[in-house]
Structure formats: structure tokens, C-alpha cells
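Hi R.,

Here's the chain you asked about this morning:
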Amino acid sequence: MQSLKALLAVCCIVLLCACTGPSVRYKTKVIEDMQNHNFEASQARIKNNKKIYGKRDTSLYYLDLSTQQDSTNYSTNTLQDLTKAQNIQSGLYTKSLSQKFASFIVNDYTEPYRLKYFELGYLFFYKILAYLQEQNLQDAVIETRSMVFYLDKLRQDTGKDDPFLQYFASQIFLMWGAFSDARISYENAKNAYLKFADSYATMPQIPKITKKDSTKGLLTVQHLNGNIPLLISKRTMVAWNKFGFALGSDSSYQSVSESTINSAIAGAYGNAIAVALPIVQEIPYIVQGSRIIVDGKEIGQTNLASNLSYYFKKNFDEEYNKIFINSAVRAAIKFLVTKEVQKQVDKKDDQVGAIVNMLLTGLFTAAESADTRSWFTLPAQIREANVLLEEGIHEIKVQLLDGNEKVLDEHTFKDVQINKGRHTYLYLRSAK
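And here is the predicted structure, written out as C-alpha cells:
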């Protein structure tokens, strides 16, 4: 009786916790909408699929939803969505022992997703952008101070930093007149750009302001381009019995039937170990640059200021050994749990024990999946251009370029008000 209760408890854990969040197919559909610059469709798709995120990943739902726009169709709900995600992440510092136990028995999806260090940094960035869209500089500065505090602690604890976010903070502080804070952030940005030179990002250039520029204002155009890579799950399974062994593999790109077949094979053999590891999958994009045209006159191109794809892959490489060890340990624990339950049931009935062994082996194999969660709607890069313009109303055109500087698309910001001595931000999102 006790053995049966233990079996039922283990099965319940597997069945209740083995969900794997948004699928690769779903993410691909959202990205396709973004690539077509159809943010209304991508936003609707995310809202219609809120349930697939589950309670553990509600913060990712709000984050993916918040990036489905650019400054031309800004939603007043964006700031609320970002704040909800931020509050959820703040509450994840206390870990649940039951969730940690389940992650060793089932998979990492049993634990809520905690943002990677760079994702958390760009949560601040998006909130600051939202405040700027609402022309709320005071709260933008408050959020900037929180971002700088986070970056300072990150640098002290891990040696990591984000040069673009430090630079961005310096510009917000300048807008507020906090010159000392601006100088410190600017110095931190210069140091960080040197330290992470292998990201190929460079510090944005600000035109020097002279006395004759006293009637001008500064325009910054930020081009959020491409899509950050995805993670897909690659599962390898080895099953054996006294007659031989079988090897199977499947990924999150394959049909559900592939996974089901491999799980059935594992159960039929009665002995199996499955290890699932994440793999980085690049999302191709053909837009490689952008050109800025003001009032019909070309004034230059944007430069790569932040390479988020670099941070994504660098973080993945740093965590891979830990991911591999956790997956191997989980596979061993599943195997030992299965054998122990079978052993206890065999004492009562060895035929039932064999059935229990097959059932648990199949269930544990089916539940094994690599953690492929991420803030997948982030851009691959942020490009920036800065120009001094005379006070007044201007037309700003942004041309999207391929690697040969051929114009693929363009967007026009009409009636942009530039005020002397003031800083104006425009941003454009492209994923093509």
C-alpha cells in the first residue's frame, strides 16, 4: 500500500510539473509577425496564448507582450506590463524547496524563470523608454538610478557590466541635470566598452556642442534590430534490457510524435536514461544597418551600440557546464528512483513491479526536457545615431539597410518637435 502511494505521488509530480512552457513553434509564429512589422498580430497572438506561459512564467508573458510595439504605436499598458514583470522577478529571490526537489525529479520548468543578468538590465531599459514615451522624465531618472545600482552590484559581484546601459544612464542623468551621476556612468560606460570589445559594439558618438549650437537640440534615434537567439531542447535517450539497447534523440523542433515514440521505447525496454540539453538557435535577420535622413537630407547611419545576441551566447556558454551537470544528475536520480520504487513493489508482486518500472521509465523520459525559456522578443542589437538639430519641427526618416546598404524598408517620423538645449528620443523596432 505504501509503495502504491509512493508511485502515485511520483506520477502526480511528473504529470503536473512536466509542462515545458511556450513551444518553439509558437515563438516562431510570434517572430514571423514581428518580422512583418505586424505588432498588432504578434501582440494578439501572445494574449491569446497566455495560458501556455503558466503561473511560473507570468513575468515572461508580460515581457514578451511589452515589446510588441515601437514608438509609433506605443501602448499605455506597456509600463504596467513591465512593472508587473519586475515585481514578479523581485519576489523570486526566495526559493521554494518543493520546486527545487521537483526540478531534480522532473525538469527545470518546475521552477519559475529567473531573468538572466542581461535580461534584467534591459527590463530597466524598457521601463525607462516607456517613461520617456510618456514624457515622465522624473520617473525615468528614478528607474535609471535603480538600473545603475543593479549594474554596480553586478559589476562588484560578478565582474559583468553592460556598456550601453551605462552610457544610456549617463544620457538620462544629463537630461535631468545630474552632471556628477552622468560623468560617473559615462566613465563606467567607457571602461565597459573596452572590457567587452569582443561584442563589436562601440560607444555612441555625441556631437560636440559649441556656442553656435545654443539654438539646437539633440536628437537620438535608437534602432532596435533583429531578434535574440532561441534555445531549443535536444534530448538524447539510451534504453536497454538484457536483449540489447536502443538510442533515440529528438528536439523541440520535431513533432510531438517523435518524443512520444522515444518515451514508449524507453518504457518498453524498462531501463533508460534521458539527458536533455539546450542548443542555441540563431534567428536570421537581413537588416544590418539603418540610415537617418532629416528633412530630406542624409545625416549618417546608426552604429552598433549594444549586441544583445553576444550577451545571450556568452551567458549560455558560462552556464553550460552547470546545465550539463544538472541534467546528468537528474537522469541518475530518475533512474535510481524508478529502481527503488520497483524494488519495493517487487516485494509484493514482481509482475506489478515490472509494469511500474515501465510506467515510471516512460513518464520520466517523457518529462525530460531542457529549459528553453528566455525573453525571446528582445532585439538582437541596438543601434544608435545622434544629431544636433535646429529648434522646430522636423521630419525624420529611418531607412533599413541590408549588408550592401540596399534600402529594404523605411519609416518616417513626422512632426518631430526639437527644442533647444533639450534631448529628444526616437526609437524604431525592426525584426526583418
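One quick note: The longest strand covers residues 230-241.

Cheers,
M.
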